[in-house]
Amino acid sequence: MSLRPIWGKVTMLKINNLDVFYGNAQALDNISINVEEKELVAILGANGSGKSTLLRAISGLTRPKSGSIQFQNRDIQRLRPDEIVGMGITQCPEGRRLFPSMPIYKNLLLGGYVFRNDKSKIKKIMADVYEMFPILEERKEQLAGTLSGGEQQMLALGRALMTEPKVLMLDETSMGLAPKIVESLFKAIKTINERGITILLVEQNAAKALAVSNRVYVLESGRVAVTGNSRDMLQDPKIREAYLGI
Ligand SMILES: Nc1ncnc2c1ncn2[C@@H]1O[C@H](COP(=O)(O)OP(=O)(O)OP(=O)(O)O)[C@@H](O)[C@H]1O
Ligand SMILES: [Mg+2]
Is the CB of 165 under 6 A from ligand 1? Predict the structure, then answer.
């Protein structure tokens, strides 16, 4: 049972002392992170620092060895991935993972699978997704595999939105895309957040992530190395040099 506090904000995700191993190799080491309702929190860190592992653990795709993951005060670290999606936590994974031989609209319908018994709801959410990304409606019959990289990323975001997430987790949304497309994707992410969806964003593009987020955690070798308010971090010369190279 999840009890909403009658004052203050709801903690959407509370991760305590999380340890994740792949065989003998430790990928996450005593990680503690919290994400409040309607926040946009960024996770930064070099390749191999554990960012995707963190999102996979929250999604139930990788089992932690110890520690806890709570969603709205309820332990979720032992739930199945589909149960976690059903509660409102959706991940837009690295590499997009679309169904390339299916048209856009079928990819979206598969995203809306959790509402398969409520056709009018699916129709309504799909209309919202098409409103946010008009190109997906214009091209709805086009096979996902033939879309450009930027269009595929929009489809991946749209498909994640089809689950009507309370928490949306994005893994390297902007990777490999042209600056103009990155710009419009970050704009879409901001809009999604302003509509009330809590966002946990994993990024290599530190400057963009700091500009768009409220708070940030920097991972180093599976540990939280630095955390703070994104605006303060952007102005801290040490952080700028170490993580932004400016
Ligand atoms: N399935 C796996 N089996 C074994 N080791 C893994 C597996 N997945 C990840 N690792 C290891 O765990 C560590 C963290 O990997 P992870 O993918 O979480 O990093 P990341 O921060 O997302 O990196 P990147 O920025 O390159 O995506 C790395 O050392 C990686 O090699
Ligand atoms: Mg990764």
Answer: no
Write out the residue range of the structural domain in which residue 134 sits: 98-164
Return the structure tokens found at 62. Answer: 């990788």
Residue 207 lies in a domain: no
Q: What's the domain count of the chain?
A: 1
- Nearest ligand, CA 29: 1
Please write the tens of the pLDDT for every residue from 173-229. 888 888 888 898 899 999 999 999 999 999 988 889 999 999 999 999 999 999 999
Within-domain flag for 69:
no
The answer to whether residue 133 is domain-embedded is yes
Intra-chain end-to-end CA distance of the chain, in Å: 47
Burial 48-58 (b: 16+ CB within 10 A, else e): ebbbbbbbbbb
pTM reported for the whole predicted model: 0.93
Domain annotation covers residue 107: yes
Q: Which atom of ligand 1 is nearest to the CA of 50?
A: 18
